[in-house]
Write a structure and sequence with these properties.
Elements lengths: L1 H24 L24 H14 L5 H10 L1 H10 L6 H12 L9 H19 L3 H11 L9 H4 L2 H14 L4 H9 L2 H6 L19 H8 L28 H10 L3 E2 L19 E2 L9 E2 L5 E2 L5 H13 L4 H13 L6 H12 L9 H10 L1 H4 L10 E2 L2 H11 L3 E2 L9 H7 L22 H4 L12 H15 L14 E2 L3 H4 L5 H13 L5 H12 L4 H13 L2 H4 E2 L1
Antiparallel strand pairs: 1-2, 3-4, 5-8, 6-7
Helix pairs in contact: 2-3, 2-24, 5-6, 6-9, 6-19, 7-9, 9-10, 10-14, 12-13, 15-16, 15-17, 16-17, 20-22, 22-26, 24-26, 25-26
Length: 568
């Protein structure tokens, strides 16, 4: 009906315009020198269709922590490519500056309500993360950095990192800065970051001392290969395992290479003023510094027959090792697949992985490791943009952090002091997850986790199910209840103002239950709301006369539905 009406409108405007031009050309029945009629206004641009809005909403769920309806509408009008270009051009919304401001306010006595130093030290990094995640304009960068934080893992379960608010805020800023850069530089930056040096114990890592039977720490050498770059086994470009003549997977490295890489990462200690090897006091504002006297001398034999010659400086050795990892053919499919899993779908096809890997390898851009090219390949791939009914094994479970952050972004979290104060306590207690708080270097869940039952039987994976239990399911439902129905939006500690959400646009249309559910289906489930779910929700809402309560109940029911939790 709408399409027919718009067509009639355009035809009517065209006829009127043609008549006006015709009358003007013949003088309009008057003198020949009469002024011509002004040109007609161009026809109005039609609003996005429901299908276009759903497409934009699905893209927003992959590329950001969530968008409001108005933002989805703007994205649908601008187009994905235009939006990506705009996002790539935005400056970094950092975390460290927020922490610095909070520390200054604390030193001025503003946070006297905090009982201990440890309380504020732990809290400030988390406050910075939530404020930036919920409010930052560079929404794509923030989302990609979070994905990277679950691949190149550092965690506050190490005392030295949890008690200094700058430790992980600065590390996260490194991920933010590298999200749109080159993967080689990102790998180098995280390798030299003091937080990583503490977490994987290669800070103050000394050269061998055979007399005293001490040798370089191998922790980072192992994990930089296993988890941060190439993985355990050689891969084809489509992510499948390469097999030897006996049909067995081919290891990418052995203990020999671990020991050789451990030699590479010796001689590093904290940088900055008064730097000295063995310094126990971290400086998170500067990369770790090389002290050649403590660096392992001699040649090092790395991957695929590469040899680092003797006589180089320690930093030359590190750069050679980073190049050796970066140039390995595994990096594109290994990192590319995990980015797909974190942003789009748990089970990408081999063809999808290969297209992303080739983008990493420089096909098209000519630059290996170009993260912008990789992000484009991940988000604009046909498997990412296909409507769910057409996609094979599509979708992924939304993890607790994403669900909570999306709720705050999609419904316009605001406060009277313009600061979204949230320590994530609710989430950690009820959802058992918080950014940069993974229990180990293997993140909260493994990329290959396959829960027993139908998913495992179908030879599929569902990583986020590794932290999904009956307790976490009830906990997240309770958290959403607190936020939406009880107005306990965050755990805002004093002296910060309380945070609230904005439901006004939805209350305005809540008089028509179908219109309200249609709008929420676009924003929350990108048009994938099942008929059975819709019928249940609409039946419940019809019995509620108060439009404010009706709106909140509608949002709550959709947010705890399987249609929302399992993103298609």
């Amino acid at each position: 009906m709408f399409d027919r009406l718009m067509t009639w409108t355009y035809l009517r405007q065209a006829v009127i315009a043609a008549m006006a031009l015709s009358l003007s050309a013949c003088g309009g029945g008057g003198s020949g020198n009469s002024p011509q009629a002004p040109p007609p206004n161009p026809p109005p641009v039609p609003p996005p269709t429901t299908a276009e809005l759903n497409d934009a909403s699905r893209f927003a769920a992959q590329a950001t922590f969530g968008m409001s309806f108005n933002e989805i509408d703007a994205l649908a009008r601008a187009g994905k490519e235009s939006w990506l270009l705009e996002q790539f051009a935005l400056p970094v919304s950092d975390h460290r500056s927020i922490v610095a401001d909070l520390v200054a306010r604390r030193d001025a006595g503003e946070f006297a309500a905090f009982e201990t130093d440890i309380e504020y030290l732990i809290m400030f990094r988390r406050l910075a993360w939530w404020h930036r995640t919920v409010t930052a304009e560079d929404a794509l960068r923030q989302r990609v950095a979070f994905a990277l934080s679950e691949i190149v893992v550092v965690s506050d379960n190490v005392d030295a990192l949890i008690i200094d608010p700058f430790a992980l805020s600065d590390y996260y800023d490194t991920l933010l800065a590298g999200a749109f850069g080159n993967f080689r530089e990102l790998l180098r930056s995280v390798s030299l970051h003091p937080a990583m040096g503490i977490y994987l114990s290669h800070v103050n890592n000394r050269r061998s001392d055979p007399i005293n039977n001490t040798f370089p720490d191998e922790n980072y050498a192992r994990e930089v290969m296993q988890l941060f770059s190439i993985g355990l086994f050689e891969l084809n470009t489509d992510g499948s395992l390469r097999l030897d003549g006996s049909g067995d997977p081919i290891p990418t490295y052995s203990n020999v290479e671990i020991r050789e890489f451990a030699k590479i990462f010796t001689g590093l200690s904290y940088g900055g003023n008064n730097a000295a090897f063995g310094n126990p006091f971290p400086n998170y504002s500067a990369p770790m510094q090389m002290f050649d006297a403590q660096h392992e001398a001699g040649t090092k034999n790395l991957l695929n027959g590469a040899v680092v010659p003797a006589g180089q400086t320690g930093m030359q050795d590190i750069d050679a090792a980073i190049d050796n990892l970066f140039e390995h053919p595994n990096v594109g499919p290994f990192i590319g697949k995990q980015l797909i899993q974190r942003l789009v779908t748990s089970n990408p096809s081999g063809a999808y992985i290969e297209r992303v890997a080739r983008a990493f390898n420089g096909d098209g851009s000519g630059v290996r490791g170009d993260m912008q090219a990789v992000i484009r390949a991940v988000l604009l791939d046909p498997e990412a943009t296909a409507v769910p009914a057409m996609a094979s094994n599509s979708g992924k479970l939304r993890e607790p952090v994403v669900r909570y952050a999306s709720l705050l972004r999609q419904f316009g979290a605001k406060s009277s002091d313009d600061f979204i104060a949230n320590t994530g306590f609710f989430l950690q207690e009820l959802g058992k997850q918080h950014p940069l708080s993974a229990p180990s270097v293997f993140n909260f869940f493994l990329p290959a986790h396959s829960p027993a039952g139908e998913i495992a039987a179908a030879d599929l994976v569902a990583p986020e199910f590794q932290i999904t239990t009956s307790n976490s399911i009830v906990g997240m439902s309770n958290l959403i209840d607190f936020v939406v129905l009880a107005d306990m939006v965050t755990d805002s500690p004093p002296p910060f103002a309380a945070v609230s959400l904005d439901y006004d646009d939805y209350i305005a249309i809540a008089g028509d239950v179908e219109v309200l559910v249609d709008r929420l289906d676009i924003v929350l489930t990108a048009g994938t709301l099942a008929e059975a779910t819709r019928n249940t929700v609409e039946a419940e809402l019809t019995a509620i006369d108060d439009l404010n309560l009706r709106t909140r109940i509608a949002i709550y029911m959709l947010l705890i539905s399987s249609d929302y939790v399992v993103r298609q």
